[in-house]
Amino acid sequence: MSDDPYVRLAAVLDTIPNGYAHTEDGTHLKVLQWIFTPEEAALASKLKLRGETAEEITARLDLPLEQTTELLETMVEKGQISGWISRSAGMRKYALMPFAIGIYEEQLGRMDEEFAKLCQEYFEKTRGGSLFNTAPPIFKVVPVNKSVSADLIIHPYEQAEKLVETSASWGVRECICKKQRGLIGEPCSYPTTVCITLAPRRENAFDDDELTTPIGKEDALRLLRDSAEAGLVHCTMNVQRGQTYICNCCTCCCGVLRGLTEYDQPNAFVDSDFIINVDSDLCSGCGTCVERCQFGALSIPEDVSVADKDRCIGCGVCVIECPEEALELVPREGRGEVEPPESLLDWMTKKAMVRGLDPSELL
Fold it and tell me: What does the pLDDT look like over 287-303, one tens digit per residue?
């Protein structure tokens, strides 16, 4: 492997199931050079995805403990790696993160115009790479309950409200996607502080998080409702348990949803269990749903709304503002027996298999 710490780190990040797409002109290396110093990149390239204490890391890599611990703490502060107190061991642990979702999102506090433009160049050249174009999808669209047919049995992982209600801590962040677009001169017209962070089991989890403002459960539910009314799409990690965020997304900023709008079948790139159904007897053809749909999935060729089921991602944004209550989400055909991966580890395992990777050395 190359002696260049950035080349090594890029290679390691691409062995993580999420992937880190490379570019022929080295833009992917410029992104890492902005985030990491050479010393930081060298250490990050040798960390594991599972947590290790500073003592374990320095023993494995034959590095001085005090100096390395200081560097690890600096890297945590800069959002380059994760660091936490293990509840079982009662000790500080450190771990490598995927580039997305992970390192990139943790640059929220550091992002400036230079980095925003660099990321735009990288996104345009890679379009997300293997993160978006291999199964299983990274995002699962979760509708607000009122948009779903009332007689439908909905699993907990299909309900945005349920994810909030069953968490132990809640927080809110500025959306890094919206911040990035604003810094390159393309500001978003939607609300920007809309990223809900969740801690499924730990109370007061965000009290010391500089990027996250702790909020209560009712505030999180209110933010969810306000985001839906504004026309934003609820997305979370495509797993059955352990979700740690709900992104409230738009197609003008979100890296995933922006990619979807450029393809003829947006629903093939995110996981969604539902699809829109129009009651033609109730529909007045007012066009409200057409205006609210960010995916061009609804049109009024004659007197009533018609759904393009290849473009619908089942978010329900159109449903909640329909004045005639002529819209509802129904199960997508063939989805009854399909379940998302059980956990993040299960998701990563399946992603690795599809990509032909063996990330065991990182685990």
Answer: 999 999 999 999 999 99
Q: How many C-beta atoms surround the C-beta of residue 255 within 10 A? A: 19
Cβ atoms of 88 and 202 within 8 Å: the answer is no
Residue pair 197/172 in contact (Cβ under 8 Å)? The answer is yes
Query: Model-level pTM?
Result: 0.90
Side-chain half-sphere exposure of 163, counting CA atoms within 13 A: 30
Class for the domain spanning 273-329: alpha beta
- For 347: left if phi > 0, alpha if psi spans -120 to 50, otherwise beta; the answer is alpha
Q: Which residue intervals of 196-272 are DSSP H helices?
A: 217-230, 255-260
Domain residue ranges of the chain, discontinuous segments joined by +: 5-129+353-362, 136-260, 273-329
Handedness of CA 115, 125, 174, 133 (dihedral sign): negative
* Whether the predicted pLDDT of 161 surpasses 70: yes
CATH architecture, domain defined by 5-129+353-362: Orthogonal Bundle (1.10)
d(CA 275, CA 318): 11
Q: How far apart (Å, rounded) are the C-alpha atoms in residues 363 and 359?
A: 7
